[in-house]
């Protein structure tokens, strides 16, 4: 039985260029693509990226067998906008409503435009998403959670979907399979509200004695309690449908493995969205206490194990030689993001962002520079690349890979960087815009951060945001930690980058 080639992609996106892509696709015989996306994993959280206090052997193996990128980025320092850019090939700040979404938000991904899964569908691939979605569902905020909820993932290019709606710390805490809540019951209807309490479920604020993980003060994770954990938002009903945190990761893994097993002989694209190490961090029992870094470290070990299970499955099916794997994260790291889980108290000198300044929510490099690993046939082995690349480039790069030509007005912010992705071209993008509470632009290792009146320091999450009322300029080649603002020393460079940024804003 002839096996089709597999391409496993875990993070990135891009624009067009047909001939090189077509020849590569022919060489690989229409590779399958698995894109694995971690959640809040930092640049310094993997041992292959220099972590000393934690070991991630499966991801290290991936890095050693392929190309490890040191200048790869999400578009944004938070999850929803990064995922929107990945799906659409468009900077999220070009569209309103792409900030961090509540669990009852309406769909923000256009159904009538090109998306990453549609690229593969247009090339004859089967497509699936398994894991975290967080880009809204339905056409309205108010929706019937007990009926089919459309539009959703199945309407933007996925043939199969098994997701939870937003994040694990937001209600509703249910799975949806192809538009419908799994295990929903008509006599126990699900209701969701983000403004007022509904139903009789206890909340973390009213009954902290019921919590098995305490909420951090002031961060809002003290509303409806599900599985002993306070959530953001209020929920009632759906008693049988509510998932258990300790089983979420393995449930997603099994669904991903099922899809892979069922599509061995037809090209497929699998978007596999892990939940680790996003809060609430409640790893399975087998990982608890193993990292010595609290539940956050344990969740990273669970993440690494999950990737290893996918690798092992591909080997058992005889698909590993024909597989390209790309791994990354939706934004940088955060420690206390709503729960008292040992991430701060048991940090033990671990540096989640490595040498970078900032993290999740920050315009500094720690907000968007993330792990990015590509491995498999056709990819350079044992290589480290400093090429500038964005996850948003995956769309155009995938089109290049599978021989789909994009129209001139499609995914215009995405760049076709197939040779960069496979480690052949060390250049990558020439410029890139980063997004947090303000915007920054990078060109030739120079980074300009636009002035902002936002807070410079978020006390609750211990985050340096990078917001300042004046221009900031950093020489990333010699100052990757962004310690020295050299705007006053290089006014011409400030003017050049400021004008480039304004030009992009006006498009």
Features of the shown structure:
single chain; 507 residues; alpha/beta; eleven-stranded mixed β-sheet; four-stranded antiparallel β-sheet; 23 strands; globular; disordered N terminus
Distance between the termini: 50 Å
Number of strands: 23
Radius of gyration: 21 Å
What do the pLDDT scores average to?
A: 94
Query: Main sheet, how many strands, which sense, barrel?
Result: 11 strands, mixed
Fraction of residues in β-strands:
15-25%
Q: What's the number of helices?
A: 10
3D structure, described in words:
- Strands 1, 2, 3, 5, 6, 7, 8, 13, 14, 15 and 16 form an eleven-stranded mixed β-sheet that branches. Strands 18-19-20-23 form a four-stranded antiparallel β-sheet, with helices on one face. A two-stranded parallel sheet has the order 4-17.
- The model is unreliable at 1-27 (pLDDT under 50).
- It has 507 residues and is an alpha/beta fold.
- The chain has helices at 18-28, 57-64, 79-88, 116-122, 245-262, 294-316, 365-368, 394-402, 418-421, 491-506, and strands at 6-8, 32-38, 66-69, 72-73, 126-132, 160-164, 176-177, 180-181, 191-193, 225-226, 229-230, 234-236, 268-273, 323-329, 372-376, 383-385, 389-390, 431-435, 439-443, 446-449, 457-458, 463-464, 472-475.
